[in-house]
Amino acid sequence: MAGKISNTAATYTPSPTSQNKRRTSIFTGSDWIRPDSRGLHQCRPAFLRTGAVNSASGSAYAEFGNTKVIVSVFGPRESKKAMMYSDIGRLNCNVSYTSFAAPIRGQSCLGKNLVIDPVSEEESYQDGGLMITCMSSRNEVTQMTVTGEWSTPKVHEAMQLCLDACSKLGKIMRSCLIEAVSAPQE
């Protein structure tokens, strides 16, 4: 059958009826309880611990609800001999994750409601998303990513919610680090 030309289309066009379908709303109002029983502006419970990997120069273990993360730092190490000497340092990052790891969490907009730290069911219904990284001790945003169409007041409100959540997480991180430093060394 090689060499035969097919009359079927090579691209997919959705049928007109599927374009008019609307998703049913998964929330009913500002007092809506989320699938994991959190309020709209509540983060998942967080747990942090240092010293997760013995062979690393530094490491930490973190849990955010059902998401578990281990971070390790190895080094400093000498550069390879093939590389010339430089006064500038080099940072090599190796990120690995399991096949069941979930995408990054952030601030989402479901209809008119802002939802912080959405679960996957909520992410599939979101109208947009906002993710920030910040230095909470300086109250300084270092990166911001916005998807979807957001009004300026909505972006401002979402940023304030994210900064509040980052501040709370920063306090947990500081107490974890203080506890690790003040613990007796073995």
Automatic annotation (TrEMBL):
Pfam families (UniProt xref): RNase_PH, RNase_PH_C
One GO location term (cellular component): nuclear exosome (RNase complex)
GO molecular function, one term: RNA binding
Major place of residence: cytoplasm
Location of region: Disordered: 1-28
Lineage: superkingdom: Eukaryota
InterPro entries tied to this protein: ExoRNase_PH_dom1 (IPR001247), ExoRNase_PH_dom2 (IPR015847), ExoRNase_PH_dom2_sf (IPR036345), PNPase/RNase_PH_dom_sf (IPR027408), Ribosomal_Su5_D2-typ_SF (IPR020568), RNase_PH (IPR050080)
Domain Exoribonuclease phosphorolytic span(s) in chain numbering: 42-105, 111-161
Entry keywords, A to Z: Cytoplasm, Exosome, Nucleus, RNA-binding, rRNA processing
Polar residues bias: start-end ranges: 1-19
Gene3D superfamilies per the UniProt record, alphabetical: GHMP Kinase, N-terminal domain
GO biological process, one term: rRNA catabolic process
Compartment(s) where it occurs, according to its Swiss-Prot or TrEMBL record: Cytoplasm; Nucleus
Membership in a protein family: Belongs to the RNase PH family.
Record-given protein name: Uncharacterized protein
